[in-house]
Amino acid sequence: MNLEEVTFCGLYCGLCASRRRIPQQAATLRETLRKEGYDRGYFDIPGLEGVFATFWEGLNLLADTPCPGCRAGGGCPGCAIRACAQERGMTTCPLCPDYPCQWLERLHGYPLLLADGRRLQQIGLERWVAEQEMRAATGFAYADVRFYEEAGK
Fold first, then answer.
1. Phi/psi of residue 6, nearest 5 degrees
2. Is the pTM here over 0.90, yes or no?
3. Mind listing the pLDDT tens digit for each residue in 86-128?
4. Distance between CA atoms of residues 79 and 84, nearest Å
5. Boundaries of every domain in the chain
């Protein structure tokens, strides 16, 4: 079984907008801009000419370089959850006997995390991955139900 999209914390990379939805939308925007000739620069709005090259570079990165996933070095570089799982030899946190633990509190913005982890425990990793792929095929992403903290709080 390919674990490439299974995160250590128990999320599924295929449901992360920065892995699928954002690259697709960035590629669509890039193609639209290309058709309009903006790949050569944008000069219609005063001030935009000074930042457009940087925007275009960022757009290309979003379209062509999605997050590689936490198993391949993506995500937070100093992720304590990843470090803990690796230290314990866990494929993913829901398989740990101490699941859920205090480390997962850092991910309180992902309301499906614990329910998905319990589902993984019930049906096993292989079936869970298949279910996550079916969710991803619908276009669902964690961002659809994610909680965001207000700025400054």
1. -90, 120
2. no
3. 999 999 999 999 999 999 998 988 999 999 999 999 999 999 9
4. 9
5. 1-10+74-153, 21-65
